[in-house]
């Protein structure tokens, strides 16, 4: 079968890979959509996030959707022809984290595209338990961005108890930040979108942000204090940059909540705990993915609160699985000239 090959030299190619074989509790999925993620670029650069698996070892892609075409003998919860989104974490299923619906915290977790074959290809074999039923109203493209992006941000807003009484800031308007705008607005909040790029601010406004702040031109703290009493109630930091993280901590009011989603990687971030956390009694926590039992409400939220068409607005480019298209997709994404990029085999 055809699949993406990333040698780790800032190149992307199409390669022939062996057809996947399914074991007893696996299902075989014909991939209909597979979204690019910023973490995929670590493989593209030759520095994969998961150590021990050099670039080029596996087909990348951890945000897929598709249709089940074959069942292993032990698979019993789905049938051939079912439409599914796929979670990227394949874990033991028995530890306390797995049983709580958080397989990403399992000590023995495998990750699609990083420690086993991913979905930038034609077919994917995965255990049946990582498949999520997609409503008929949900497109395959929306299904692909509904897990790592929109689902993650939905769970974040839910954990922060976001409601119509809140002013919520979203810092960093890449695909995750735009998903945050959709989720916060869908929960009724007033949304303040903050970024350094005009086009991303315009996109945020077009999908529901009430305010758009260009941090290169305006001091976000001064801006926020002009529209609120003492700061936003909640903030979600999606850039992972030192400036973005400090902005989130600075503009959030006393007893406010800041969720960190953007990953700084190896970058060291300097903050002022006394002023930004302790003396504001601020809650600051890391957010990573959703609990598996939340999927049904996430899917319902996307279909009935956001809408399939608006969810697809965070996708700017779609590419077939062709050599030239693959190279262009990764290049444009690397240059931050896109929002979400999706392969549609």
Describe this structure in words.
This protein folds into 2 domains: 2-133 and 307-343, Alpha-Beta Complex (Quinone Oxidoreductase, Chain A, domain 1), CATH 3.90.180.10; 150-286, Rossmann fold, CATH 3.40.50.720. It is built from 11 helices and 17 strands. It has helices at 40-44, 96-99, 140-159, 175-186, 198-206, 220-227, 242-251, 273-276, 295-306, 308-311, 323-334, and strands spanning 2-5, 13-16, 26-35, 64-71, 83-86, 89-90, 110-111, 123-127, 131-133, 167-171, 190-195, 211-214, 232-237, 252-260, 283-286, 315-319, 340-343. Strands 3, 4, 5, 8, 9, 16 and 17 form a 7-stranded mixed β-sheet that branches. A 6-stranded parallel β-sheet has the order 12-11-10-13-14-15, sandwiched between helices. Helix 7 links the parallel strand 13 (232-237) and strand 14 (252-260). Helix 3 crosses helix 4 (175-186) and helix 3 packs across helix 9 (295-306). The chain starts with a strand and ends with a strand. The model has no long low-confidence stretch (mean pLDDT 96).
């Amino acid at each position: 079968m055809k699949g993406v090959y990333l040698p780790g030299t800032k190149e992307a190619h199409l390669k022939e890979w062996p057809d996947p074989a399914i074991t007893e509790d696996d299902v075989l999925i014909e991939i209909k959509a597979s979204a690019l993620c910023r973490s995929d670029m670590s493989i593209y650069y030759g520095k994969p996030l998961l150590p021990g698996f050099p670039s080029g070892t596996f087909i990348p892609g951890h945000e897929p959707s598709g249709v089940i075409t074959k069942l292993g003998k032990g698979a019993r919860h789905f049938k051939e022809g079912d439409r599914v989104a796929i979670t990227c974490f394949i874990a033991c299923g028995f530890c306390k984290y797995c049983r709580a619906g958080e397989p990403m915290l399992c000590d023995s977790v495998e990750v699609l595209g990083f420690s086993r074959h991913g979905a930038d290809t034609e077919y994917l074999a995965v255990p049946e338990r990582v498949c999520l039923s997609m409503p008929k109203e949900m497109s395959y493209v929306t299904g692909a961005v509904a897990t790592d992006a929109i689902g993650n941000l939905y769970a974040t807003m839910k954990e922060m108890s976001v409601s119509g009484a809140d002013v919520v800031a979203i810092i960093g308007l890449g695909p995750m930040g735009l998903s945050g705008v959709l989720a916060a607005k869908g929960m009724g909040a007033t949304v303040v979108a903050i970024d350094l790029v005009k086009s991303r601010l315009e996109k945020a406004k077009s999908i529901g942000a009430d305010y758009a702040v260009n941090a290169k031109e305006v001091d976000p703290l001064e801006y926020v204090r002009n529209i609120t009493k003492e700061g936003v109630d909640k903030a979600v930091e999606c850039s992972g940059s030192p400036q973005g993280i400090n902005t989130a901590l600075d503009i959030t009011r006393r007893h406010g909540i800041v969720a960190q989603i953007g990953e700084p990687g190896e970058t060291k971030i300097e903050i002022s705990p006394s002023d930004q956390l302790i003396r504001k009694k601020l809650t600051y926590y890391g957010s990573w993915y959703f609990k598996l039992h939340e999927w049904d409400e996430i899917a319902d939220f996307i279909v009935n609160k956001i809408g399939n068409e608006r969810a697809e607005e965070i996708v700017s480019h779609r590419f077939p699985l062709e050599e030239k298209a693959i190279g262009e997709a990764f290049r444009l994404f690397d240059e931050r000239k896109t929002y979400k990029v999706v392969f549609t085999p």
